Amino acid sequence: NAGVMQNPRHLVRRRGQEARLRCSPMKGHSHVYWYRQLPEEGLKFMVYLQKENIIDESGMPKERFSAEFPKEGPSILRIQQVVRGDSAAYFCASSLGPRLAGSDEQYFGPGTRLTVT
Amino acid sequence: AQKITQTQPGMFVQEKEAVTLDCTYDTSDPSYGLFWYKQPSSGEMIFLIYQGSYDQQNATEGRYSLNFQKARKSANLVISASQLGDSAMYFCAMSLSNDYKLSFGAGTTVTVRA
Predict the structure, then answer these.
(1) pLDDT in tens, A8-34
(2) What is the pLDDT of residues B11-32, one digit of tens each?
């Protein structure tokens, strides 16, 4: 029973390039959450998606960042024209339902470490 | 918005001893959940323990226990009989029961010495 999968695990981009981060939720999970962890900090919520819908993107930077979760395939976090400040670990989590009613209902992937040079 | 505070940036503990990691939170909502995660140097987030705001008993999971003091709004993690493999960053997090977002503290680095 595979867990949340993220790829690539490490991504290096030059300033101005695009970064595409992929997340495949656990089997049967249709709710995906993206978090960003800047160096020496805790995780910060970015966006919550269900299949084909963005439910809450209140944590997403207004420019250059976008996310999608198509009917088929993984969820994608896309960062256009990356800058050095985008260097961080990006974590995806998934859940069966939309609420954290208790316990560890939100399962995290291993993260993608983005380095912008 | 909820706020999670972890005041200890780093701690050293001797192998086989217990260590307590502090976490305080701030919310006016009566219904919420508190979580602790471990992040080893490899980077993944590992769920450790959960406490619901209405739970009467403190949560325990193996060597992990959560010292929940609701009136003080604190949810300290106690790791008993520390092992070298416990060396990692530990994050406290909270979510309101009608919400899906986790709010994280800044983390505490634990280094276990042999």
Answers:
(1) 999 999 999 999 999 999 988 889 999
(2) 999 999 999 999 999 999 999 9
pLDDT of residue A73 exceeding 60: yes
Burial readout A30-42 (b: 16 or more C-beta within 10 A, e: otherwise)? bbbbbbbbeeeeb
Q: Is the pLDDT of residue A87 over 90?
A: yes
Q: Does B44 touch chain A (CB under 8 A)?
A: yes
Residues in A touching B105 (Cβ below 8 Å): 42
Residues 28-47 on A with a CB inside 8 Å of B are: 31, 33, 35, 40-45
Q: Do B101 and A48 touch (CB under 8 A)?
A: yes
Q: Cα angle at A56 between A97 and B97, to 5 degrees? A: 45
In chain A the beta strands, taken as DSSP E runs, fall at 5-7, 10-13, 19-24, 31-37, 43-50, 53-56, 65-68, 75-79, 88-95, 107-108, 112-116
- List the single residue in B33, B44, B104 with the smallest CB-CB distance to A43: B104
